[in-house]
Amino acid sequence: MAASHDSYLINLATPDRLLRDKSVRAFRAELERCELLGLEFLVTHPGNATAGSRDSALRQNAELIGQVVWDVPGRTRVLLETTAGTGSSLGCRFEEIAALIDGQPAEVRARLGVCFDTAHVFAAGYDLRGDYDAVVERFDEVIGLGRLELIHCNDSLGALGSRRDRHADIGAGELGEGAFRHLMQDPRLRSVPRVLETPKGEDPVAADRRNLATLRRLAGP
Ligand SMILES: [Zn+2]
């Protein structure tokens, strides 16, 4: 599995025309580059509704994602990442992610999927610590587990519903080891690849090894 993450500066939901056009160009270039490199997935965050209604921002966001995916034929699939909902960011409710996918023409829909970020989902108010199964079931109802292609495994410094996007080492944040034990042992997610976005500290390789070892231990019996 090979995935890229697009630039955080891209905002396909902005009401600012200049910024919107720049964002469309940048997003298109990201997708073209992924096609050239033969990558399976391009992960992108839904945009920010910096002014106007959230609904119209969401509609514009959906329209522009659809347009770029349509304009850049190929095999790379665009994964919409669940967000923490900081400020005006879209995609912190499963319904918003679904809205970005469901209204697309079938050809576009087939090239869209979802990246589930554990820290974001928790900070957005879904209680992965207290009721893991209810969150996964809700995701399945609203978006569909069939659309889940990638998981970002991160603990959260921000509390449940805090909308703070701050990652922590696995087990060292508000989520704790229990949530990751459920996730690592969930048969519904067995085939879904996962990526660490935990803090790197002074020795990134050592930090990643430590977090990976924690996840492996939690995946065990
Ligand atoms: Zn993430």
CATH class wording: Alpha Beta
Strands of the largest sheet, in order across it?
A: 1-2-3-4-5-8
Going by CATH, the homologous superfamily would be Divalent-metal-dependent TIM barrel enzymes
Ions, cofactors, ligands: which are bound?
zinc ion
What structural category arises from helix and sheet content? Answer: alpha/beta
Radius of gyration based on Cα positions: 17 Å
The termini sit apart by 26 Å
Q: Spans with pLDDT under 50 lasting ≥5 residues? A: none
Give average pLDDT, whole number: 96
CATH architectural arrangement: Alpha-Beta Barrel
CATH topology, by name, is: TIM Barrel
Polypeptide structure, described:
The structure is a single chain. By secondary structure, the protein is α/β, with parallel strands linked by helices. It has a single domain, classed as TIM Barrel. The chain is 43% helix and 14% strand. It has helices at residues 17-37, 54-71, 94-102, 106-109, 118-123, 132-142, 176-184, 204-219, and strands at residues 3-5, 41-44, 77-81, 112-117, 148-153, 155-156, 167-168, 194-196. The strands form two sheets. Strands 1-2-3-4-5-8 form a six-stranded parallel beta sheet. It has a two-stranded antiparallel ribbon with strand order 6-7. Helix 1 packs parallel to helix 2 and helix 7 (176-184) packs across helix 8 (204-219). The longest helix has 21 residues, at 17-37. The protein is globular, with a radius of gyration of 17 Å. The model has no long low-confidence stretch (mean pLDDT 96). The chain binds zinc ion. Zinc ion (ZN) is lined by residues 81, 117, 152, 197.
